[in-house]
């Protein structure tokens, strides 16, 4: 069997059906549009995610016989309230703590250098002077880069403020109309698709509930983990509690990796504030318990209906989609991996099943 014949059989298996070719074209065009125009479409995509998130409460109110328009207004007003609280209460607090942390970085660096000196004196065979100097040089470069990034951020603050204003105006408007005119927008989108879309409908039905549950569950997980982290750090008297709580909450977006990476800033702040004391160990133990409860109790409860995907596949999806789309790529890495898995299983199987069904119907009619 030649390579050409193998390739032809592979093409016949996957692309012999017109609907499969159309589905491939739709996927390629969609991914291409997001990759090329993702920055320009960012407010629209953000509003789409938020509307997808808020559709659950709207549907819940509709099932309680509340008029849809009234349900949309109630949910939208709640969303605006949360958005204003984040913009005028939480964000300034986080910004002030971030500025304070940057200002404290030189002192933290000096404290870390003193800690290395103490380790070298206590354990001369474990930590050599060359290793200690290398660590100091690396930490010095990181502190210098942090200062440069802070300076660049301050110089570009005007552009960031303008971008934030655009988001604060456009995103709520888009969210409102996406919720209010959902049926019209969905109908218009469906009208653009070909009449023969059985395969696309099957894949979308398989993915719809899973994506919705994942998005809502992930937001709930961020809020719960961040809130518990805030009160835990505040109980121990740790500085920068709001900033660390936000970092810990957002770390759940990256399974397996986020918890490990977030340990570094938590340990650094606790070590600088408490030193190598029992309080430092208590903070690390409490943080470890929080991550263990999240991974073994909270996540299984929130994502019990999620498709089982191997950890290696999840990490590869995070690296790939995060490299393409940044934050949103990381956030949607698992749903996108689930979509690819559904495509792999449904594409040839769905086409084959439909051909068998059509053959059976033809045989029955004859």
Automatic annotation (TrEMBL):
Q: Which UniProt keywords apply?
A: Cell membrane, Membrane, Transmembrane, Transmembrane helix, Transport
The entry's localization annotation reads: Cell membrane
Pfam family membership, one: AI-2E_transport
| Location (main, coarse) | membrane
Q: Where are the transmembrane segments?
A: 20-38, 44-62, 69-95, 161-179, 219-238, 244-268, 280-302, 314-347
The UniProt entry lists membrane topology as: Multi-pass membrane protein
Tell me the protein family, please. Answer: Belongs to the autoinducer-2 exporter (AI-2E) (TC 2.A.86) family.
**Protein name (Swiss-Prot/TrEMBL):** AI-2E family transporter
